[in-house]
Write a structure and sequence with these properties.
four-stranded antiparallel beta sheet, alpha/beta, 254 residues, homodimer, six-stranded mixed beta sheet, 9 helices, Molybdenum Cofactor Biosythetic Enzyme, Chain A
Chain lengths: 254, 254
């Protein structure tokens, strides 16, 4: 049974020079965040670090100590710039070993394709000693779990396949309910209304996201809470307040 | 004159519950990273933190101490969840004041539109004491510079307008040259070649980015260096090595 009163948190370390150089647009933050919401786990912080063992280790140790779960994406392929396993093993103080199960997965994957399991490919079977594997249905190499550290691929659809396999397996609290209401109101016109509502309901968070579209200003207001009823009541009160201020609320956002 | 031998670095703190909830896909990391490359400044780390003053302050102080520049995006609008200015002022130990120039910008922006400068809107003229303004041509409220901290909007096109105004004004080193060559080669087939090339050229970084497309595997190899000639020679050697291994190199990537 989950402890409903406790808030579960995760952090994510995104590993890769390609994100920090601007070459690659990260997609793992958004996809992991949404998935964590459904597991009742809040994504508390993200750090993006380069392919540098010391930086990876520092971020992993700092964040795994203060969160229930620590995820990483990137750096687990077969090439020289894939150093995540070594960096994390060093950071937690265990040796790197070849995992027999991972080796078997790679053998089963490459053999029928007539591809040799070279030393480079075998790198993908290396894990910090004591690790378990995370299933990967979309390509051969598995993800790696070591205590509260979940080591995922950087390629978004492979990372997606790995978290898919973890669905329902991580202990969390109640899923966070997120409701949106939009209005053709400049956010500065409703700032006081929002503040009043949030102060009256400390366990909801209200975000205000302005836009300029079709020649006019507007905002979407996102109400988030683990208490679905409270989120609902807050959105209703917000819609009422918008109406009183002369703006038509649009349920679900604009 | 820039010091050509020194490497200039920046860090970015992305502020916002909407990124950590998965609601909003961040675009500022990639756009700031590309722009920094052109300024000869390397983006060394990114942290994404929630709308929480303590978390913002902690990330800003940790990163501004070890980098030449510290950028933030998000949390500078008129609503209750826009707490970046207060959080940074508290973190660096100065009071928040209304900047007369920012107030004037807001007055000039709202008056001709017949919009009242309410207390909420005036929030956007508040800065940590001692700050300068960063020009914003796309909407009224300016960005804020305090010592080596550059406080930008979260909305990507407004952030883009603010960094546009900073182009050429930040001291940096040589722009980082990035050259790409692709091949229909699984990255595990060329892992040893890449490692040999990188070891032979410690001042280049080679990234390997695999893909699966049109029914086949391939990889793009990105060679980055402040030394453009060295990057060029390394790409030529890589193309030669790919050819010798039986793969046709594609300049510019696939």
């Amino acid at each position: 049974m989950s402890d409903q009163s406790r808030q579960w948190t995760a952090a994510l370390v995104v590993i890769g020079d390609e994100i920090l150089s601007g070459r690659t647009q990260d997609k793992n933050v958004a996809q992991l965040a949404s998935w964590l919401n459904d597991q009742g786990i809040r994504l508390a912080e993200v750090r993006v670090v380069p392919d540098d063992a010391a930086k990876i280790g520092e971020a992993v140790n700092a964040l795994r100590a203060i969160n229930d779960y620590l995820f990483t994406t990137g750096g687990i392929g077969p090439t020289h710039d894939d150093i995540t396993i070594d960096a994390i093993a060093a950071a937690v103080g265990v040796p790197v070993v070849v995992h027999p199960g991972a080796r078997r997965i790679l053998e089963d994957y490459y053999a029928p394709r007539g591809i040799e399991l070279t030393e480079s490919r075998l790198r993908m079977a290396r894990v910090p000693e004591g690790a378990e594997l995370i299933d990967n249905r979309s390509s051969g190499a598995p993800g790696v779990k070591w205590e509260n550290i979940y080591i995922l691929a950087g390629v978004p659809h492979i990372a997606a396949s790995m978290i898919e396999g973890l669905t329902g397996k991580l202990e969390g609290g109640r899923p966070i309910v997120s409701l949106t209401v939009g209005a053709r109101a400049p956010e500065s016109d409703v700032a006081e209304l929002l503040q009043r509502l949030e102060q009256a309901n400390p366990s909801v968070a209200i975000g205000s996201y302005p836009f300029f579209r079709d020649g006019g200003y507007g905002s979407n207001f996102v109400v988030r809470s683990e208490d679905g009823d409270l989120a609902r009541r807050t959105v209703d009160a917000l819609a009422q307040g918008l109406r009183e201020a002369g703006f038509e609320p649009v349920e679900g956002g604009i």
